[in-house]
Design a protein that fits this description.
Number of helices: 3
Number of strands: 2
Radius of gyration: 50 Å
Strand order of the largest sheet: 1-2
Mean pLDDT: 74
Order of helices and strands: HHHEE
Shape: rod-shaped
Distance between the termini: 123 Å
Low-confidence stretches: 135-171
Structural class: mainly alpha
Helix content: 40-55%
Strand content: under 5%
């Protein structure tokens, strides 16, 4: 034999010593089990992930539906507030409660003087109510108009006088009050 053949034979011998002499099932079994376990674990984790995403999707659609319902309710309530805030609706409710429009206001100055003339406001007949004529034969020429309270009772006239005295037009000086500072 030649030297090249001997070298080849030596290499094959060394490789043969490294490799087991027969096919071994023991070396393949753990690898196959590892691959099967990895694939099974991956499929199970994908299934769980998909289920979680679907649950989140259902929850999201439910929350969107609730948001739409609540937005509709909020808009309906806002329309109600707007309708109650209209000037004619406020006036109608105020008249139903027995309120009357205010007269000229009087202001209290910081030095205690009153600017303006305070006046007692009397109820004008409401447009819905028909005014009743007075039952007294003398009429109401000398008597001021009285307001009715929400309970429907009329306050009695002041004793000893036929008319309520009007406030004086001169400014009244009141004692100074503390400013709370």
């Amino acid at each position: 034999m030649t030297k090249a053949a001997e070298q080849l034979k030596g290499r094959v011998g060394r490789l043969a010593r490294l490799m087991p002499s027969g096919p071994s099932k023991a070396a393949r079994t753990p690898f196959v089990l590892l691959v099967v376990l990895l694939l099974t674990g991956g499929l199970i984790s994908l299934l769980l992930l998909n289920s979680a995403l679907n649950e989140g999707s259902f929850r999201l659609s439910k929350l969107k539906r609730e948001t739409t319902d609540l937005t509709d309710e909020q808009q309906a309530l806002q329309r109600d507030v707007d309708s109650y805030s209209e000037p004619d609706a406020l006036e109608r409710r105020a008249r139903e409660l027995g309120m009357v429009p205010g007269g000229s206001p009087a202001f209290l100055n910081p030095d205690g003087t009153i600017r303006g003339v305070p006046e007692r406001v009397t109820a004008a007949p409401s447009p819905a109510a028909v005014p009743k004529p007075d039952a007294s034969p003398s009429g109401s020429a000398g008597r001021p108009r009285t307001t009715t309270s929400p309970s429907g009772s009329v306050p009695p006239p002041a004793s000893g006088s036929a008319a309520t005295p009007a406030p004086s037009a001169t400014p009244t000086t009141l004692p100074p009050t503390s400013s709370g500072r």
